[in-house]
Amino acid sequence: MMKDEEEEEEERERSILPPPSAMQCQWWLQLQLKSSLFLIFIFFLSFSSASNYSVTVSYDSRSLIINGQRKLLISASIHYPRSVPAMWPGLVQLAKEGGVDVIETYVFWNGHELSPNNYYFGGRYDLVKFCKIVQQAGMYMILRIGPFVAAEWNFGGVPVWLHYVPGTVFRTDNEPFKYHMQKFLTFIVNLMKKENLFASQGGPIILAQVENEYGFYESAYGDGGKRYAAWAANMAVSQSTGVPWIMCEQFDAPDTVIDTCNSFYCDNFKPISPNKPKFWTENWPGWFKTFGASDPHRPPEDVAFSVARFFQKGGSLQNYYMYHGGTNFGRTSGGPFITTSYDYDAPIDEYGLARCPKWGHLKELHRSIKLCERPLLNGKTTFLTLGPSQEADVYQDSSGACAAFLANLDDKNDEVVEFRNTSYHLPAWSVSILPDCKGVAFNSAKVGSQTSVVEMIATNLKPSTPSPLRSLQWDVFQEKAGIWGIADFTKNGLVDHINTTKDATDYFWYRTSLLVDENEEFFRNGSSPILIVESKGHAMHVFINQKLQASASGNGSSPPFKLTSPISLKPGMNVIALLSMTVGLQNAGSFYEWIGAGPYSVRITGMKKSTVDLSSSTWTYKIGLLGEHLRIYDTDGLNAVKWVSTSEPPKQQPLTWYKAVVDSPPGYDPIGLDMIQMGKGLAWLNGQEIGRYWPRIGSKGEQCVQQCDYRGKFSQNKCNTGCGEPTQRWYHVPRSWFKPSGNILVIFEEKGGDPTKITFSTRKISSVCAHISEDHPAFDFEYSQKRSTGDFINKTTTRLKCHPSTQISHVKFASFGNPTGTCGSFAQGQCHDPNSVSTVEKVCLNKSYCELEISQENFDMQLCPSLVKRLAVEVVCS
């Protein structure tokens, strides 16, 4: 991005507030985001431990120690390039309101060092700005510099140019790699020091990480791997940052760093040294998606279970990877085949909205754990067996403060246990937290927080200068199938795609010719010759005499593929053009940088010679597309080709560029680009890269569920949905990318689609729900003030919140008794208080926020005395 473009984007960021809907679970945060810089500055001053004054950061076997105080920390991964600067304050504030203390991010080497010594820190890559936003929010930071990150990010975050520095082998005792790695890590450390961002300087950064999950691959590199791991740790520690360094999943980590755990569960993790604290750097609250696969989800009950178990077993720092996944804009996704969406089923969704009930359930969990901080970090622990699969861990310090965790590890059966002469009901696969060793403040299986129903509401693309007589005008430019301009080179045989393009583009043309005898049998009998292409990956379109005749691709687990397709040939000379495509480069694995792409065998069967092998023929090559080369998606390159204007753009036409000038959708809600009727390609708005689109259909053979059972150990394929549906339909377009008018949308379509069906969709909360039982843990803020007396507030309350600019306009459903179903499909059971709807209307109607207490004052508590009754509510906000 040029400097003047950066300044324009900064101006738009200042003029556009973060979308109000990003706070739908805690709407009052919107008022904070609208407050003046003066108020932010006052808050900044008030949080001295993470802003103005230098602090000491050390550790012992129990926890991180900040200024002499042991700290129990909840951390959230938010990657700055996977959102935009206009969203950063809202994301950070929403994480803080969710009970988070720390923001964690990787540092993305290939986004910053575009070529050797050519550094970039603008736009989405403004790392310093992101750190300072975290600091201004009064939060800490974990900076995972790596600089290898994996992260489903292109090439694992390492610049592709480094692979072509002579003699370089990644992630081993290799001098070229170590030189460039140390140079970049030192550059980042010095940048942070210059901006006073380490805690030792008064900044927010309390931990830094070198390398990433190297323990899985070290053995493949032999002794060189062991030497490299030790070198990386010692090199990082020598940077004198004043904060500890960590290495995750490093099974032989030197004593100079803290080794940490990454997994769905880390309660059984033990650091290498008994002198190190137990840290969990990646708790996966969901999973990433790949084009052509189903949609993974992780239930909030199981996420909460895993966190509670970790702290129950002595953990002191836990980080959600991801807390906000965001978007792989442009060509940043790796894998290959990782989708443009990196939503991750995270507590904050891709668009910046709190995912409820997951966000709210975890917020309640964090509150409860924080109430246990003093005995957890300073007390002695006692382990008790309460049953065959039931156990308790009790922490008590010298002052008498006591906290207990009661766990039921049975993944099928609820149990009642006796603890300190009191009976406790433990649902299957759950943990109850007792901050005073008496009353239950939280149970991981009992979700009582608000649920939101989110919909994508379509709005047709509207011309920037609308009038009754004006329809949307499209400009169209057709790419040539094959070599455009002058060929880059000609060679006998097939070359590797990645080694040739060096990832400057997804696209690479292979072209050859075939002379076909007019006496071939298939001309007479109506049969077709068969083209067979074997490729190392990732995808391919086949053009015969300028016409698209076949397409094929690999998938997320198996990039190599084999294309077998009948083709049409003509007598005489035929031109065969293969458009090879990458869909993100490999991002992890031993020696991953050597994995190639593109065709390695091309044959035709069904001819007189039986099989014609074209693999060693003379091939002509061209890197990229003409439109890419001329940057016709960018402001400066828009007029570099002759566009054809039409209100009826061609449909199902491959290799076509489409351009339209459109209005921004009204309002403040987040925006997605609906590409369900398109094929595969790339999209831009005002020169900003939206990313790869590909509404590829997931395999119907996958295992999907209608309803997920949270009980039992989770794996990434346990709770998938969307089998047989497009993996990704909507593509996030940040509000800050839009201008008031004159927005230029550019689409490159590879294989054919219907551009007239492209729409913007706004992401809206259509309704909010609550579903809570009368025996839900009676937690209230007031409890924390009454801990010294041991009193509990016997008050079960649920809260409903709408957007601050909307109110609860209609009670769609309400039933106190034994209602069935889930949010959006509630139904009355046999036990029902007939006054349920009127009660909810009385308390909540025409309000943006209301609290409903389950009490005799509001509901008939004597109803169905043998049942544990529940309240289910769904309201509409408008």
Summarize the structure in words.
With 878 residues, the chain is an alpha+beta fold. It has 5 domains: 21-355, TIM Barrel, CATH 3.20.20; 378-444, Immunoglobulin-like (Sandwich), CATH 2.60.40; 454-479 and 628-763, Jelly Rolls (Sandwich); 489-624, Sandwich (Jelly Rolls); 774-877, Sandwich (Jelly Rolls), CATH 2.60.120.740. It is built from 17 helices and 44 strands. An 8-stranded parallel barrel has the order 4-5-8-9-10-11-12-13, surrounded by 4 helices. Strand 1 and strand 2 form a beta hairpin. Helix 8 packs parallel to helix 9 (222-237) and helix 10 (300-312) runs parallel beside helix 11. The longest helix has 20 residues, at 175-194. The radius of gyration is 29 Å and the shape is globular.
CATH superfamily of the largest domain, by name, is: Glycosidases
How far is the first residue's CA from the last residue's CA? 39 Å
How many strands appear in the DSSP assignment? 44
Helix proportion range? 10-25%
- Which spans have pLDDT < 50 for at least 5 consecutive residues? 11-51, 780-792
Outline the biggest β-sheet: 8 strands, parallel, barrel
Instruction: Predict the CATH topology of the largest domain.
Output: TIM Barrel
- The total number of structural domains is 5
Looking at the overall shape, the CATH architecture of the largest domain is Alpha-Beta Barrel
Task: Figure out the total of helices.
Answer: 17
Q: What is the class of the largest domain in the CATH system? A: Alpha Beta
Radius of gyration: 29 Å
The structure class reads: alpha+beta
Beta-strand percentage range: 25-35%
Mean pLDDT: 91
Shape: globular
